Automatic annotation (TrEMBL):
GO molecular function, one term: ABC-type transporter activity
Recorded GO CC terms: ATP-binding cassette (ABC) transporter complex
Annotated keywords: Cell membrane, Membrane, Transmembrane, Transmembrane helix, Transport
UniProt KW Transport keyword: yes
Highest taxon, organism lineage: Bacteria
Membrane topology: Multi-pass membrane protein
Family statement: Belongs to the ABC-2 integral membrane protein family.
Domain ABC transmembrane type-2 residues, every copy: 23-252
Protein name: Transport permease protein
KW Cytoplasm (keyword) present: no
Amino acid sequence: MMSTASRIALQSIVFKEVARFIRIWPQTLLPPAITTTLYFMIFGNFVGSRIGSLGEYSYLEYIFPGLVMMSVITNSYANVVSSFFSAKFQRSIEEILVAPVSNGVLLSGYLLGGMARGLLTALIVSTLALMFVDIEVKHPLLTVLLVVLASAMFALGGFINAVYARKFDDTSIVPTFVLTPLTYLGGVFYSISWLPEIWQHISLANPILYLVNGFRYSFLGESDVNVGLAILILLAGVILLTLFALRLLQRGTGLRS
């Protein structure tokens, strides 16, 4: 059971993290809302009207889960990488490191802060999306499970990126050159069945494809991949990244000069 001191430390870190992204909401919560609205206007209405329906669903309904998942991925990651690196850069992280706060509590605090921003963004994006499309969730528990696991996995990814980053430019390398391409190629806007066979096989190596399709299945009941495999990938990702992040903290990687 967690001690009183650890519980207070965890609550303090989580409160600081949530207060930080709420305080700068024009930079953290407003951009995904505007971006998603544009996506729904351009791809949903203008492009979607030319594509037509996909089976029993409109194109707007088809891309809805992918756009929500995309906002969860980018915001969970961005929150932790920017916050933890800023703490390193300003040397305020040293106050936590010298305090009697365990590595698990430190990591959990930043992780929960990143998850909070990812989940709040998902709620905002979903609310805005309902202005454009009326969609029914077929598997609500699966929806919650996938969005929580995805926010946790990418918040951990952001933490690891921040640990290794030496300057602010390093915090944007992974989002720009890894996350964004994999997300756009992860089936947010299309089914991999539309691709040539060789590209279908290549797409299966993209882990974000499983997240997007698992999330789409929870809404529509349709997926290009095995949903059980998507859950296993998320669980494995969360466990492995947690162990790796704790190992980095234990060794003091990027924290001790």
